[in-house]
Specification:
The protein is mainly α. It has one domain. The chain contains 19 helices and no strands. Helix 4 packs across helix 19, helix 6 runs antiparallel to helix 8 and helix 6 crosses helix 17.
Length: 376
């Protein structure tokens, strides 16, 4: 065929019709995935609101069980109860929401709700250690994967224990009581219109105590659906150089941990991604201490939203106090003695990993402490 023929040749109508179809086949799945994730987000948000309202309605039925049977009637055993509860379900957010509904119904007092929320956050970090165990069972490096889980537990435990004292003092002094965030009348009216018939229907056919159980199951489902609607993050090898320069900056990692947790509204999600990232060599233990500290600050966003749904000003103050106290502790550590603190926690983690006996003792301690608190 001559050059003139090639230049004058045009694609046939059949060939032209194929091109848009090929592009459509590539674009449509992407649009469908994005649309599916948006729909999943709204479903998870709707279920979360319904769950909080159900738990609020049913919480009062558990007052005698919690106070008389479980003996949860003071800040110490509330701390242990929230801690163990989070271990059991491997998530802190549903336990924190339960603490607010118990407080709203008068089952526990303000300080006990605060300590139960703190316990839920300390127990939530256990999921990172659990995922580390799974990676070890799959034949991955024991020190790297268990070390990341242990680091999450140690950093969370050490900072939250200090924040527990600070937050308790803030609550007693009433420092943050003047800060209000009232729900608007339109939001209340909309929630009543949408969810009251559902709650009334469940209440009509099921006993009052079952409302809290239904709510707790639904809130677990809502968090699971929300995790699925988050975008999948992929890190390319070409970006490792830039990532390695960024992660040596403590304040950058602090803000990164806070930002990812703020977006995902789950500290379990934001901390759990550390295991695969460290396993692939993208991040090292030395760089994640400020990341964990930042994640522990913004993890209260979903609990803050739950407080607003309850329309209880004191519940809002409890969550705000939790958030402010852990933020103050973390920022002071970053400014004054971060490198000493980092060396201390890394040294403890190395000591625990060094021998199986040390690991067993550590695991016994983190289970014995909340169990012991339950008997106070």
């Amino acid at each position: 065929m001559s050059l003139s023929n090639l230049s004058n040749s045009k694609p046939s109508a059949a060939e032209l019709s194929v091109l848009p179809d090929a592009q459509t086949r590539r674009v449509l799945p992407t649009l469908a995935r994005r649309g599916g994730k948006i729909l999943l987000f709204f479903i998870s948000l709707t279920l979360f609101i319904l769950a909080i309202l159900l738990m609020k309605e049913g919480a009062q039925s558990y007052s005698s069980f919690i106070r008389d049977t479980l003996k949860v009637d003071n800040p110490l055993n509330s701390l242990g109860f929230g801690w163990l509860f989070a271990y059991l379900i491997m998530s802190g957010s549903p336990v924190a929401a339960a603490a607010l509904t118990f407080f709203d119904s008068g089952v526990i007092d303000k300080l006990s709700a605060f300590t139960m929320i703190t316990g839920s956050r300390m127990g939530a970090s256990f999921i990172v250690l659990f995922i580390g165990f799974i990676y070890v069972l799959r034949g991955r490096d024991r020190g790297t994967n268990l070390g990341m889980g242990l680091l999450a537990l140690v950093v969370t435990g050490s900072t939250y224990l200090i924040a527990l004292v600070l937050g308790g003092a803030i609550l007693r002094a009433g420092t943050l009581d003047s800060i209000h965030w009232d729900s608007t009348i339109s939001i209340k009216s909309l929630m009543d219109t949408l969810f009251s018939p559902i709650i009334s229907g469940i209440d009509r056919y099921f006993p009052a105590w079952s409302l809290f159980i239904f709510g707790f199951i639904i809130i677990m489902l809502s968090f699971n659906l929300f995790d699925r609607c988050l975008p999948q993050m992929a890190i390319k090898e070409s970006r490792v150089g830039r990532v390695s320069r960024i992660v040596y900056q403590p304040w950058v990692m602090f803000l990164l941990g806070a930002g990812i947790t703020l977006i995902s509204m789950s500290v379990s999600v934001s901390l759990s991604i550390l295991i695969p990232l460290s396993n692939r060599g993208f991040i090292r233990r030395e760089n994640v201490v400020p990341y964990i500290m930042g994640a522990n600050v913004t993890t209260f966003i979903d609990t803050l939203f739950a407080a607003l749904l309850l329309d209880n000003q004191h519940a809002f103050t409890i969550v705000l106090t939790s958030m402010v106290s852990i933020a103050v502790v973390s920022i002071v550590l970053l400014i004054t003695s971060f490198h000493r603190y980092e060396r201390a926690v890394l040294g403890l983690v190395d000591f625990v990993i060094a021998k199986k006996r040390n690991m067993i003792i550590f695991l016994l301690i983190i289970f014995v402490i909340p169990i012991t608190l339950m008997f106070f």
